[in-house]
User: Fold this.
Amino acid sequence: MEYERFDTDQERIILNKIYKVLGPYTNYFQPSMKLVEKTREGPKVTKTYDEAKTPYRRLLVAGSISRSSEDRLKEEYDSLNPAKLNREIESLRKELYQVYRRKGNETVEETEEDLEYILL
Assistant:
């Protein structure tokens, strides 16, 4: 896999926009599994994971935040549209590659692998 270097001011601005949208998308709509236990029996390692939850759901279940913070997060969650966020990320990603190509990298072609790399 080839890595691109986004080092111009215009690319930095677009990357910041991506991160601004990617944060809510990841925290509210991308579940992940967390390691609960790891045991070793000789050379064999067994890992146990909890069920997949979004960081938002984990925070609510933990009960470690104030009621006002919880209400604020629920309000933000209700205002978000995951499909819209995903479309915005995709649009910004395409814009980033267009800017990258214009700075002298016209031979670079976008692939599905590039999308996976940016969203990881």
Summary: The two ends are 14 Å apart (CA to CA). The mean pLDDT is 88.
